[in-house]
Amino acid sequence: MLSYTLRRLAFAVPTVLVISLIVFLMLDLAPGDPTASLPMTIPLEVREQIRISLGLGEPVIVRYFKWLQMTLVTEPLHVLAGVTGWDIAPQGPRILSWQTRSPVGDIIVQRVPQTLWVVGMGYLFGILIAVPIGVISAYRQYSWFDQVGTFVSMVGFSVPTFFTGIVFILVFSVWLGWFPSMYDTTHVVRDWNSFLFQVKQIAMPVAVLALYNASQISRFMRASMLDNLNQDYVRTARAKGLGEQTVVLLHVLRNSMIPVVTVIAIGIPTVFTGAIITEQIFRVNGLGDALIRAIYVSDWPMVQTITFIFAILIVMFNLIADVLYGILDPRIRYD
């Protein structure tokens, strides 16, 4: 297992580098200029000086390696220095947002807590709901529980989150007045009442994301359970006199989690980048909102960095999923 993990890590490095080059070149060739939002009265030579100050006066390959070095080394060290207080932040240029003229790393650090709090909770609740629903639906196939679960999961997965979010706002905010329709990112939890308000304002975005994630994962969980319930090892376990609970939860569930782990692992990076549409609907000031705003104003340094981080997370969690395969199923051996 260790040698396999090291081989995958060695293969992941060139993969990430190729992805970074593709992302940088595609966005660098896209239309957009950091001086486009400046007043027309600013002389052309001043505009050119601004472009040079942002590092746009050098060849594209030079700018790529500088951006890569700042993304992998400079920005993480600045973030670590800000979190720990250690004096490890290197001197030199940083990746600047064209929109705000602020370091991209600082903006991402400010947005991550909101994204993890809202989108992360939605994903976690989606998993906790989906797994038991999928297990029970498969074990009681064609029962009323299975029929209801199948219908709800199909609706939850088919209906886009922007429609579900609007319906939730209309019903629970406008008609019933139970929850606020907009997320207040400046709210600070200090006492019990402020905690209750925090719970109320995250309830709807978390519910929208949990419904969508649970609908997808529960279908995979049900299909995988049905496939394993008819295997020979299940009949053998029952013939040996093992209890039904032991057979289902210890043997069937463990093997059924293998394909589900892939779905969950690949979906985890979306927690860090945020659910773009849901954050827009509920005005959550997270990474998804930062990404969509950067796209609107052609803020390519911000888009490049967030997209590259997303790519790294996908590669990393794919590796984690492969390692978990060997833990869940002892029959899988990589060495």
What labels describe this entry?
335 residues; mainly alpha; MetI-like fold; globular; 13 helices; single chain
Describe the 3D structure.
The protein has about 325 residues and is mainly alpha-helical. The chain has a domain of about 220 residues: MetI-like (MetI-like fold, Orthogonal Bundle), CATH 1.10.3720.10. It is built from 13 helices and no strands. Helix 1 packs antiparallel against helix 13 and helix 9 runs antiparallel to helix 13. The longest helix has about 40 residues. It is globular and about 85 Å long.
Radius of gyration: 24 Å
The biggest beta sheet reads: none
Order of helices and strands: HHHHHHHHHHHHH
**CATH domain class name of the domain at 110-328:** Mainly Alpha
Query: Strand tally, please?
Result: 0
Low-confidence stretches: none
Mean pLDDT: 81
